[in-house]
Amino acid sequence: MVRARLVLIVILSLIAGACGPSAADLQATEDAQASVIAGTQEAIDARATSVQGTQDAADQEATGIAGTATKKAESTQAARETQTERTAVAAQMATKSASSMADLMEQLRGDGYITSAGGSYEALPSFDESWAQLNWYQVYPLEADPADFVLRADASWESASRTANWFASGCGIVFRYKDIDNHYVVFLSLDGYVTMLRSKGGVFGEMGRRYFGEVGTPAGQASIMVTAEAQRFIIFVNGEKVMEREDFGLTEGSLGYTLVSGTNKDFGTRCQLQNVELWRLASN
After folding, report:
1. Is residue 28 scored above 90 in pLDDT?
2. What is the pTM assigned to this prediction?
């Protein structure tokens, strides 16, 4: 009986299978299909999210690039505006300095120190050098080469020694410089004197030496102004006329700076010239 019953169950199962899927099977199939569809939709959604994320990243990168470009443009514009402002300030200062120098020319002409106030203004480079060779001077020529001019500058200088030759510890200018054998030299020294020398054809000579006031040692400072017009030369220190000379020896050449060393110790003498201004006198 047991064996027969098993056969009957098997037969019934075969019959059921032959008659088609049961409701449970159909439900399982639908559930499986729904699951597949749901999985596919999730994949589509995930892909869409990935695409959106990529697009968002691209948008962010584009925004970043645009922001960088904007900042760069703003920075460039700011730099241009700053440079323009600096140029305008420099031009304004140059105009103011030229105007001040022009007023000085009128004053010098009125006082009889120059015959004409006409000419042109030029700011010359500052100077800062040292030299160590006892009782010798060094020349530093410039490109400017007016024969007739007015030049003014603020000078400061010092000696490396407290026992230097103060008369040879100086700072000043060279003019009508052709070469080391042909030029004029004017310098202020730490003994409070201004000295003018001439070298013509290699022959050196002192044209004058005048006291302008106490400077102090081992360092000093003073303003200097030199006028050169034809054969007439006038030297001013701290706004006061100190010396006037005439000489027909040299008629042309360039300007330059000079320093005179009163010691061989260490750096010797250091000379600084600042606020150097030149007025080229017009030819009469």
Report:
1. no
2. 0.69
